[in-house]
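Session log. Operator J.P. requested a structure for one protein chain; no other inputs attached. Running the standard single-chain path with token output.
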Amino acid sequence: MIDSDEIAGRKNKAIEAELAAETTAFSGAARWLIALATVGAIIVAINQLFNFRIGGYAMLEGMYLYILAGTFLAISFLCFRIKGGVSSQIPWYDWALALLALGIAGYFAFTRSESLDNGWEYAAPQTAIWFSIAFYILILEATRRTGGLVLFLVVFLFSLYPTFAEDMPDPLNGFTQPFTDVIPFFMISAEASFGIPMQAFGNLVIGFILFGAVLQYTGGGRFFNDLAMALVGQYRGGAGKVSIFASGFMGSMSGSVISNVLTTGVVSIPAMKNSGFSARFAAATEACASTGGVLMPPIMGATAFVMASWLGVPYVEIMIAAAIPSALYYFGLFIQIDAYSGRRGLKGLMKAELPQIRAVLGHGWVYIFVFALLITLMVAFRWETTAPFYAVVLLLIVNQIKKGSSFTVSSFVDMIVSVGRTLAEIVAILLGIGMIVGAFQATGLTGPLANELVYMAGNSTAMLLVMGAITSFIFGMGMTVTACYIFLAVILAPALVQAGLNELGVHLFILYWGMVSFITPPVALGAFAAATLAGASPMGSAWQATRLGAVIYIIPFFFVLNPALIGQGPLPEVLLSVVCAFVGIWFIAAAMQGYLACIGTMGAGVLSLIMRGALMASGLLLAAPFGGLLALNQIEMSLVGLLLALIPAAYAWRLNRRNKEESIVL
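Structure written below.
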């Protein structure tokens, strides 16, 4: 059995690699080439998305995606080393691989019209076959460098699956095809590497990643952290509550849990420890807050944009649907931190330590205006692909006008290089996992596999959801969030939809359960990263994060069974479900910490545990979609939950009153 120290050692390597990626500074020719290549790709994207037709030429979508793929694949070889991690020391063979990636992508872009006219994805000429194989090898290597060995092995095995599908037992049996037919299909068709994942990148992801980077480099991250400090820093557990808002916002921009922990945790964790939080609880708070950021609108990281393309719906619909579950998660986290602070008598931060809200808003109101512009363009005008570029322009203009914050040439190039590295990492992973999608398309396995999963679950929706949650958790341990989502969207989502569940709810369910591995042992990378900064036990911090973030394990079941919690349904039903869910989450979070706001502690001992269990049960009756149970509808079940909550509330009130009387006597 592997002990916690060995697990910690393994995780620390991943954390150190992430930290290196955040701090590596490129210099010399590499720095300028990465910056120029990134700017060139962004200009190509702007020309395509705004339909400028520079030179009177309209570019085919496939050609556009090949240019992006070649550019960022080349950058990935310049940034990520063969032994893993990021380094500014670029060996000669990585320069060669970068040039090769550009050349091969250029070939496919140049021949795109011909390949469409002649159906090369099914009958490629010999030259295209050899170029496809070379491109395939480059993508595999880039996926290994950026996504890690586990993701590489998964992609590699599934990419070869169509060559031996006929020999697999049911339900994995499919159509077998020669290797020289499969690889061109992956590289040329719009159903594999250049299918939905890369289409989402070219149309949506690139603009929002650019927006997030510019927002951080122009001081947006600092503004929202100061705003959170000014709003909630003075209340009990204020440092922890600030972490929720600051880390949640930053995670929404970056889409990376670990990088979010490493950037915001440097400030938030020491502040929490200084205000009385244990090192373990401070680490768990930061890990949970950073994990939730990837689930929080308006940006949510790259995965949400892939989801929008996958479902064929506007990104705004994903954003609106994700708003309620995300708010429930952060509300549960907020209640637990408040209860923890109340139970231990922790105070807020000193007023002298806090920024003045008027000064914060006076200095950074423009960031709120930029977000308002972004959301208005997305919601009112439906300019999802172009809205982030308008927001970026506004940010850059304001930043240059403001005194003391304008870009220098060097800082601007640093920002562009950072954007290029981030986009290169995303592209390398998307190209790799696109081959998983292609493998299932080539073998015709998606439909039969969904039927088999439904059959294995015995037509039980609950069993299928449990199987889906476990599968998502397992794959989330070894893959990036986006890779895990796409893999399960192919394999698992059709089965859940076939069982009669809401399609959007199913895809959000997969996303949520793919995220829990960041705070759940034995992997818990987010908790391990935070523990490193806090000087706490890694495994102890992970278990504390599991308890603190408990709401994330149950919310997906709530909204996938009750679509009203993702805004799907009549307005009265949505409002009722949301109100009941918030009250239910309040009770569940209070039961987890043994402290009921406005009343006080629930004490210790066996009777206390029973009362806490009753409070949790009442929360579940309120929040969960239990309508129809015991011949009661949802309103009646919610009333039962409220009545049940009166018992532990009365117990806590009596206990605290007695303690108060005893303290007065003493």
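Operator note: The mean pLDDT is 84.
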